Amino acid sequence: MKRYLLSAVVLFITYSSLFAQHMEVQILGSAQSAAKQNNALVIKTAEATARVWIYSPTVIRVSISKNTGVSDTSFAVIQKPEGSIDSKENSDHIEVTTSALKLSIQKSPLRFNFYTADGKELSQDDSRFGVNWQGTRVINYRKLYKDERFIGLGEKTGDLDRRGSSYTNWNSDVPDHNPKSDPLYETFPFFVGMHGGLTYGLFFDNTHKSYFDFGATTDHQMSWFGADAGDMNYYFFGAQNVADIIKDYTWLTGRMEMPPLWTLGYQQCRWSYMSAQEILDIAKTFRDHNIPADVMYCDIDYMDHYKIFTWNHETFPDPKSFIDKLKSMGFRLVTIVDPGIKVEPGYKQYDEGVAKNYFATYPNGEKFIGEVWPGRCHFPDFFRDDVRKWWGASFTALTEPGVEGFWNDMNEPAAWGQNIPWMVKFGNYYMPEIRNVYGMEMARATHEGTKKILGNKRPFVLTRAAYSGTQRYSAVWTGDNSAYDAHMLLGQRMVNSLGITGMSLVGVDIGGFSGDPTPELMVRWNSLGVYTPMFRNHAMQGTKMREPWRWGEANEKIIKKDIEQRYKLLPYLYSSFYQSHQTGLPVSRTLAINYTQDTMVYNPTYQNQFLFGDGLLVAPVISTEHTASVYLPKGEWYRISSGEHYEGGKAYTVDAPLNDLPVFAKGGAIVPMQNIIQNTNEKGDGILEVNVWYGKEASKFVYYEDDGSSYDYEHGTYHKREISFDPANKRIKFGVISGLLTSKYTKIKLVLHQFQSNISGNVRTVSVNGEIKALSGDVVMFDNTNSAITVAYH
Ligand code: GLC
């Protein structure tokens, strides 16, 4: 004990003298007292107070603070700790235990070390440095394991395995970013670490500018994370697989609502379609060419001098009749809104905001002015309840004529020069504390406001800036990417990484925002877009037009066929979003989620591959290659375009012509599809095509359907059943329906892929609830009833 104290004092003195002229390093010190207070364990050192709470058996929170009396608010966390804490103390340690985790707290110096309940070491403080401060900056140094890998942090450049990289979170407008730029637009301070076959997660809930170093600079001894100020406030997740860690993280920070079905269709955007007529012409061309699409966008030029909540009356003279015409063609309209409110007396939002003091200020009370598209602007203080309500209510200018989607841009917040002074105040916060959450609070205000206005209809919100928890309010896209191959691959990694941090409805600008893609890149990127949760084509002002018919007849054909594939997949995709809504598991999943221990999935050649839902594996391929190196993890796989069988656990070189992106179905995959429709308002032919690929192992899929637009699903109006495949007993079962809704599909068309080649003899008949039916090829059709249906093959 004495020895520890002595070494702590020596360390302190050494640091103090080393940094005397600079910012001193202040160490955490040793525990002087420990006591349970309410539902926390409170440990005091001379320098700080540490608190420990149990949120669930697999989630423990540690918060270490030098500050006293600060409010314990979080923008991200929506759960409360459990009522009691189970701890034991001896002379050296305090042990906090749950059924899944053991937190061993060393008293001198104070260190926090996590183990599984059966004693396997998950993560420890670095024994020398643990937590310390330099000025207000707080850092936690942690032990780095030899084989440790890291995934997460959401929208970040770099490799899937973040070992050896470091990152900064500081939401920024970064047009022209490249595959190495950092920081970008969003902050998700959550990562998963894995070593020795074990997994853990860590969410650093601190909104200041923050830093993560995954062994980039410390001779493989330490990883570290910290922030410019605030508390060392983190949640430790101890579930022993990545999917369960994501489940816990999204339990803690919330999960997405069911998205409006139309947002899963094809979306066409551009900065900007300059008039209502131009948008109507584009929409009509989709219909003339029979290319399915659901959404058109208005970028900034629909407004009167970029004044938010206004329309340019010359180019959009009658918004309602314009949107009605779009609707009659089966299109929804999404309009952009930026936070900057133009300084212009007489402009409603300006006058109201000034009168009510709704805008960010300098410390002397003067309103902050930054320049964005409209010129000089004030910025709403979205951290205030009354401001969020005011902002939300202003959307009537858009909802009354019929807008249903609200694109929140420039909310890092961006202002020309990108350097809003740190003394700018939002309510009780200064800029540095909350910059990383501004975009999320804007999205929240937009979501809450439009949800209120639209009544029972689901709004669609899309935001560029975000913080952990944004999934509760909004979709995100990855900002201003560029039209080259490396950006396409980076975009996919970012989509997959955002999925780890709870964001499932995620898109990239298909084709690349800046620059002009080659026709090959456009085709390739579009085919990847089919398997991107949000499928939006968007391009910058001045670039070549990007719509599917601008690329020559042969390419248009491929683009069309791919978009049609997206529409066929909608029942599968919608059910996959239901999974995100229920469990937080993303739709686009890095292979690291399911195949965590397989080192091949982190290999830079294969790191962009992902599972799209439970059953499909997609391998992105650059536009200049027509073959691809693909790694298929353990199991059986079938190329969906050819049916070709692949044994997993191996890498293959496969054909990848521009009209056939490598997509594989897992053995046992159950993928419900539908016929091609031109937009999601169409009813289709009423046939649900359930595709099952043969596998040696049993599998399950939860099929989910609701009206796709209202909140009635929250009150039981949905249609859900489990579809299971049992090869041992040669059965495919459609479970009893739960929910009050009758399916829009009256028939089920069951397609058995590769059953013939896998089971002895030819499958010619199946029995459906005992009734023998002939197979036509691999297909059998029967009524979609609410009761259980058992299909037996022989
Ligand atoms: C920003 C957005 C981009 C948009 C443009 C004009 O650059 O990221 O998507 O088109 O602003 O509003």
Structure report:
With 794 residues, the chain is α+β, with helices and mostly antiparallel strands. The chain folds into three domains: 2-253, Immunoglobulin-like (Sandwich); 265-583, Glycosidases (TIM Barrel, Alpha-Beta Barrel); 683-793, Golgi alpha-mannosidase II (Immunoglobulin-like, Sandwich). The chain has 14 helices and 53 strands. The strands form eleven sheets. Strands 33-32-30-27-23-22-21-35-34 form a nine-stranded parallel β-sheet. Helix 6 crosses helix 8 (431-454). It is globular and about 80 Å long. The model is unreliable at 1-6 and 8-17 (pLDDT under 50). The site of alpha-D-glucopyranose (GLC) has 10 residues, from loops.
Q: Biggest β-sheet, characterized?
A: 9 strands, parallel
Number of strands: 53
Proportion of beta-strand residues: 25-35%
Secondary-structure arrangement, i.e. CATH architecture of the largest domain: Alpha-Beta Barrel
Distance between the termini: 73 Å
Topology summary:
Blueprint: H1 2-18, E1 25-27, E2 33-37, E3 40-44, E4 49-56, E5 59-65, E6 87-89, E7 93-97, E8 101-106, E9 111-116, E10 121-124, E11 131-134, E12 137-143, E13 149-152, E14 166-169, E15 186-187, E16 190-195, E17 198-204, E18 210-213, E19 222-227, E20 232-237, H2 242-253, E21 266-268, H3 276-288, E22 295-298, H4 319-328, E23 332-337, E24 341-342, H5 348-356, E25 370-372, E26 375-378, H6 385-393, H7 396-399, E27 405-408, E28 425-426, E29 429-430, H8 431-454, E30 460-463, E31 466-467, E32 475-477, H9 485-500, E33 506-507, E34 509-510, H10 519-529, E35 535-537, H11 553-568, H12 570-583, E36 588-590, H13 591-594, E37 610-612, E38 616-618, E39 627-632, E40 636-639, E41 645-647, E42 650-655, E43 663-666, E44 670-673, E45 687-693, E46 699-705, E47 719-726, E48 731-734, E49 747-753, H14 755-758, E50 765-768, E51 771-774, E52 779-783, E53 789-793
Parallel strand pairs: 15-31, 21-22, 21-35, 22-23, 23-27, 27-30, 30-32, 32-33, 34-35, 45-49
Antiparallel strand pairs: 1-11, 2-3, 3-4, 4-5, 5-20, 6-7, 7-8, 8-9, 9-10, 11-12, 12-19, 13-16, 14-18, 16-17, 17-20, 18-19, 24-26, 25-26, 28-29, 36-37, 37-38, 38-43, 39-42, 40-41, 40-43, 44-45, 46-47, 47-48, 48-53, 49-52, 50-51, 50-53
Helix pairs in contact: 3-4, 6-8, 10-11
